[in-house]
DNA sequence: AACGAACTTGACAATCATTTTCATTAAGCA
DNA sequence: TGCTTAATGAAAATGATTGTCAAGTTCGTT
């Protein structure tokens, strides 16, 4: 009857394995390029669709870079944020349970639901200071 | 000799007055449209440039919507964050001394200086839930 | 093992926000 | 008033993302 299946295809496993290997935030275009160079070519459109599907399924993290481009990465066990050097790009992952709790309570206070948040810290790293 | 002036023009005051009147987050395109309808037409390119200039001068708040489009609004006096409804765009300003302190200490821990941060919370407001 | 409905794919065209180009216009100082 | 230079804006360019649709696959069913 109604099997609303998500099928497993070569393309899908290619994308997830690329994400696993890269283990870092990458844009759709970069992942597409990576797969092409590796000889495991997947259509650009398909990479877009797959990443979006994985993202809304909660299987990958998606963040919006400052220039508006979306970048994806295999979901890491814990939700965290980034401390980015404005000059050299060095990125440090930081966690903030305090912040998470704060965001949740503020949202609840105002009656918001289905909340998500973005938090990035920019500055100059020790080397670039 | 070297007069590195920022000149005051009709277009610039049109953009700032539009921002003041609207008093809400709007996209560049929306502001451009608003000015055109009001008969105080300003080129789209100029609106883009003006908003970016105002933003980097710290005179307006700029945030990146989840779809990647930039939206701007007149700066309010104190540093604060936004709780934005994904559906209707309703924006609530929220303050978070906790978050500020957390961001500062995390940065210090990693030796970062000149730090700034962005934090936006997206969700569904009570009406849109 | 073959069938077939529904899901997937991918080349290409279409969108759409934003940027670049560059010739024209206008601020503001001397 | 004149002149230097910033500012403007129309049009073209860019670049990421989405839509289209015919052809290819998957997988439960026969």
Protein described:
2 copies of one chain form a homodimer. By secondary structure, chain A is an alpha+beta fold. The first copy, chain A, contains 4 helices and 6 strands; from the N terminus they run αβααββββαβ. In chain A, the strands form 2 sheets. A 3-stranded antiparallel β-sheet of chain A has the order 1-3-2. In chain A, α1 packs across α2 and α2 crosses α3. The radius of gyration of chain A is 17 Å and the shape is globular. The relative contact order of chain A is 0.13. The model of chain A has no long low-confidence stretch (mean pLDDT 84). The first copy, chain A, binds a DNA duplex (30 and 30 nucleotides) through α1 and α3.
What attributes does this structure have?
homodimer; 129 residues; alpha+beta; three-stranded antiparallel beta sheet; three-stranded mixed beta sheet; DNA-binding
TL;DR?
Chain A has helices spanning 10-22, 28-37, 44-56, 97-109, and strands at 26-27, 60-64, 70-74, 81-85, 91-94, 113-124. With 129 residues, the first copy, chain A, is α+β, with helices and mostly antiparallel strands.
Structural class label of chain A: alpha+beta
Unreliably modeled segments of chain A: none
Rounded to the nearest angstrom, the radius of gyration of chain A is: 17 Å
Helix content of chain A: 25-40%
Distance between the termini of chain A: 64 Å
SSE order of chain A in H/E notation? HEHHEEEEHE
Give the neighbour order of strands across the main sheet of chain A: 1-3-2
Largest sheet of chain A: 3 strands, antiparallel
The number of helices of chain A is 4
Percent strand of chain A equals 25-35%
Note the quaternary state here. homodimer
Bulk shape of chain A: globular
Please count the beta strands of chain A (DSSP E, at least 2 residues each).
6
Largest interface, counted with CB-CB under 8 A? A-B, 35 and 35 residues
Task: Estimate the mean pLDDT confidence of chain A.
Answer: 84
């Amino acid at each position: 009857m109604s099997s609303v299946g998500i099928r497993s295809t070569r393309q899908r496993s290619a994308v997830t394995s690329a994400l696993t290997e890269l283990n870092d935030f990458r844009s759709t275009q970069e992942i597409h390029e990576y797969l092409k160079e590796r000889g495991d070519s997947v259509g650009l459109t398909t990479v877009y669709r797959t990443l979006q599907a994985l993202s809304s399924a909660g299987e990958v993290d998606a963040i919006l870079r400052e220039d508006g481009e979306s970048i994806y990465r295999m979901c890491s066990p814990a939700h965290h944020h980034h401390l980015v050097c404005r000059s050299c790009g060095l990125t440090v992952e930081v966690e903030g349970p305090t912040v998470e709790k704060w965001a949740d309570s503020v949202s609840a206070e105002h009656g918001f639901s289905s909340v998500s948040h973005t938090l990035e810290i920019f500055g100059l790293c020790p080397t670039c200071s």
